[in-house]
Amino acid sequence: MDTNADVTKFGTFLGVYTPSVLTILGLIMYLRFGWVLGNVGLGLTAFIVLLAGSITVITALSASAISTNMRVGVGGEYYMISRSLGLELGGAIGIPLFLCRTLSITFYSFGLAEAIAMFVPGDVSARTIQLMTAIIIIAITFVSGKSASVVLKLQVPIMIAVGLSIAALIIGALSSDLRAPEMVATYRTAPQGFWYVFAVFFPAVTGFTAGIGMSGDLKDPRRSIPLGTMLAVATGMLIYLLVPVLLSVSSTISFEDLASKGVVTWSMIAILGAWLVVPGIFGAILSSAFGSVLGGPRVLQSLATDGLAPGFLSKLSKTGQPTAATWVSGGIALLAVALGGLNAVAQFVTIMFLTLYVMINFSAAIEKLTGDLSYRPKINIPWFVSLLGCLGAVIVMALINPIACVGAIMLEALLFIGLRRRAMKKEWGDVRAGFWGTLARFALQKLKAHEDDPRNWRPHILVFSGEVEKRMSLVYLASCFNRQRGILTICNLVIDSFSHNKLDIRAETEKMNACLEQEGILAFSEIDLVPDFENGAITVTQANGIAGLNSNTILFGWSDKRERMQAQIRIMRAVEIANKSTIIIRTDEFSRETPKKRIDLWWRGKHSNSDIMLLLAYMLTLNVDWKGAKIYLQTIILHENDMEFMMKSLTDMIDEIRISAEPRVIVKPPEKTVIELMHDYSQDADVVFLGLMIPAEGMESEYVDRMDELSRGFSTTVFVRNGSKFVGDLL
After folding, report:
1. Phi, psi (rounded to 5 degrees) for 554
2. Does CATH place domain 457-557 in 1.10.357?
3. Which one of 29, 172, 370, 421 has the largest count of C-beta atoms within 10 Å of its C-beta?
């Protein structure tokens, strides 16, 4: 790959909206809308548009949600699914996606050939149409292989031509004699029935994925994909609901002719006839074909980059085009010409696209249900909406063609199994008597394989609470930080020895469990006998957990005993060596009943404590009691000149991490100390987050004094030390 290639990156309008909307407003709108209307009537036509459109809108929302949660690379939908559900499942859908986009090249080329054929004198044979289609495929493959920039820039005049053709239809229909629309389905030229008509129409709404397929060529895919995609879908839906009404109420053409005349229907109704319609038809269909020949090779390029296709297919030309992948796509599209005509290819394209829709919606639903902290999309879609889109796509697949539906699912299942076997070796356990034990073992083994990925980090918190009933506010806050995303363990360290102790550990543990259950807190309880607090806490911290579910964060409450606080600092120093973070909470005026409105986080930009502090603050806002609380990310600067730079830094960081927070940059006046300034700004906050440093050995007492000075007067103070191995990478 030429890393010095002069690669052009595109924005929302040219890179996403234009190819998406022109693929939507393409072949089917011109060639088959009249045919659909003439066969099923206006009522069922509107139902087809709304049914197909609803599945598309949900899928577009799901795709937008996923795209706003990651840096989307080359490969569009394949890239998003493989990074969300794993390489094996991504590959299982990526290969059909590539075939789907490649078949779309054939589909749109057939459409363009049919449109050209109406200008050829006499009847044009099916063989001639196929020959014309092959020539078109070769031509667009050649142009696309040279430069994506040229192709995308050509779409602006094409969009103008499409807009003029729609305007001509509106003027022509409204200026003619109006009639009552036909509402009854006749199936004049579609005896196969409703679902056959739906299958022929459905590729019309799949165009929204054209922009997603250009993900690797976008300046800011996280912003451009959702914005451009949703605007294109909205534009398409509005026009698709308008066009059948115009065709239906115009008396210029009969319903019989609507069902049989194809592209001529627009020319018969529109003002100035073919002069305004034909450029729009040719341009839109050509643009759709270009969209497919740009998208398909990029999926193949991404598959090759991930090792799921031959490596040479990932190589780029000097202009950044996957030339080898483009020619392979064009070759397969040429072979698909043998499938027959437009309607035959349409069914294959429909089924393939629906399998893609299933996986996009499934990915979004699973991400939402799993609740990973890293899943913080800027567009939030409820899991059941994505699941509804998933089920809708499966049902429509079955209704269109049950055999093709089963075949597509089997193909993807076989691909998944093959890729899975290639990547790992399975070992199956007993699925009856040992089901739950096997499931737990399997889950722990899988978790171990992903424990080195910061994306999978969750707060497994070990709370040294002492007697739970006396430190319930501490346990409550730990539960809020955990938010049922990780493992929460409440530990009471009893300073004693086994030889002299008469404590009934089992009974005391049950009392702890009952207390937690009464408060509605889900946690594990344990009582540990230790010879002294400091060494005991370090030992318990190292031993706590199992496999990939070891505690990664320890939490202490503030102590009035100076020696205990110094011990906590020394424990923090020791456990950081084991990559464990430390939280110390001071609750002077904390109350669960008081409405929570404000969370202040003081950022110094040192040691990357800010990433775990932001995550913990975000976790608080996920709880019902903290739902309306606002996060303030605050920092102090010494010079007014640094204000603009620091504000931009904080704003960019907030945008990048996708956590709703308000930046605040404060210039320190000479007459105030930093601590006085912090107290002035955060005295009304419900909780204040501050970073922890590790003092030099022997300086623990002085550092405890500073912590006391910093936190005195705040309602609740949370001191945080990021000791994880993902320092600076958790966001």
Report:
1. -110, 150
2. no
3. 29
pLDDT tens digit sequence for 87-133: 766 777 777 778 777 887 887 788 788 778 877 777 777 788 888 88
Residue pair 291/19 in contact (Cβ under 8 Å)? The answer is yes
Beta strand 553-557 pairing with 687-691? unpaired
CA angle 595, 598, 604 (to 5 degrees): 155
Q: What is the pLDDT of residues 537-549, one digit of tens each?
A: 999 988 887 766 7
Topology (CATH level 3) of domain 585-731: Rossmann fold (3.40.50)
Return the CATH number of 12-421, one of 1.20.1740.10, 1.20.1560.10, 3.40.50.300, 3.40.1440.10. Answer: 1.20.1740.10
- 134-148, 290-304, 320-334, 633-647: which has the highest mean pLDDT? 633-647
- Give residue limits of the domains in the chain: 12-421, 457-557, 585-731
Long-range Cβ pairs for the range 144-148 (8 Å, 24+): 144/290, 144/293, 144/294, 144/297, 144/321, 144/326, 145/317, 145/321, 145/323, 145/326, 145/327, 145/330, 146/317, 146/319, 146/321, 147/319, 147/321, 148/8, 148/214, 148/217, 148/294, 148/319, 148/320, 148/321
Q: What angle do CA 29, 30, 31 make, to 5 degrees?
A: 105
Question: What does the chain come to in residues?
Answer: 731
CA–CA separation, 356 and 347 (whole Å): 14
User: pLDDT at position 572, please?
Assistant: 95
**pLDDT 10s digits, 673-710:** 999 999 999 999 999 999 999 999 999 999 999 999 99
Confidence of residue 429 (pLDDT cuts 50, 70, 90): very low
What global pTM score does this model have? Answer: 0.69
* Residue 406 pLDDT: 83
Task: Give the neighbor-by-neighbor strand order of the sheet with 687-691.
Answer: 524-530, 488-495, 461-464, 553-557, 581-587, 716-721, 687-691, 598-602, 630-637, 662-667
Alpha helices in 250-322 (DSSP H): 255-258, 264-269, 274-305
Rounded Cα distance between 239 and 166, Å, is 9
Q: Which two tokens stand for residue 85?
A: 């559900």
